[in-house]
Amino acid sequence: MKNFQLSTLNQTLLIINENSGTGEQSELLERAVARQGGIVCRTNSEAGDGVAMAREAVREGFQRIGAAGGDGTAHEVANGIVQAREAIKDTGKEAPEVAFGVVPLGTGNDLAGTLALPEDPRDAVAVLVRQQPRALDLFRITGTLDNSVATDDPTGDEHVLYGINAAAGGFSGEVDEEVTTELKKTWGPLAYLVGAARAVPDLHEYDTHVSFDDEAPEAIDALNVIVANGRTIGGGKRVAPGANPCDGLLDVVIVKWGGMVDFAAVGARLMAGDWLDSPHVVHRRARKVRVEGDPGMWFNVDGELQTKEPLTFEVLPGALPVVVGPDFRAERER
Predict the structure, then answer these.
(1) Mean pLDDT for the chain overall
(2) CATH number at residue 22
(3) Domain containing 232: what range?
């Protein structure tokens, strides 16, 4: 397993989402940064700020760049680091090794859970500064993406985005009216498991195809397609409990169409952490996955809504040095 031996004496940049966290967390973070020393802090508040700030930090020579916030902040900062390194490579120069870290301040903090990072900002800052990073996989998403994070694909007319935790797709647009605020709070990105039976009476009208590792596309009556590098989404829902972010593979979880009773059973298994045993759930591992349909399936990446156009997901083994907690275990649990 490749590890990156970076000096802890090099200055660290912490990009803080000023809209994340509680007042108490912010106070604890401020104290932790002051106590550690050697940390430069910059705040962001608008969508896309984290990407731009991380790109600039790589150019400035920071060797550790942390994201203080939720999964969306982590997503932006990780993309900024990768984009900056790719831009340097495009000039023919060797890109510097830059470690990425997270200080969890959001409400979900799914990536932080997979990385076994402490919830207390004081402990998380200490981990960011002191722990040696591990080489973790990323996944590249290619398709029609129009947002402040994605970049143009130099090989074609599409766009490129990088994911670090998971992408979750589903027919959420069709079930919004059936999904209450309370259901969204409880189920997060999978809230439409509960409302779908009333909102979409016949998914056979939806033509969804999934292909694995460039094999022929398979037609699937899918309500959800989840492409996971990490293990949880939606604030701790264990959608891919055996995912290993260091194995060079993506865990693909497909929830097949069923009735309300079936959805209730799937939901109960999800809460118990064993939904992969459900006959309505398909689980595979692959290096590359493509999802397309008519009508399209809306996807979010690391919790950020993206597109319903066809998308290709491809793992990038060991692409990013990531600071993990001392109790981090990459090995699958099942």
Answers:
(1) 83
(2) 3.40.50.10330
(3) 141-317
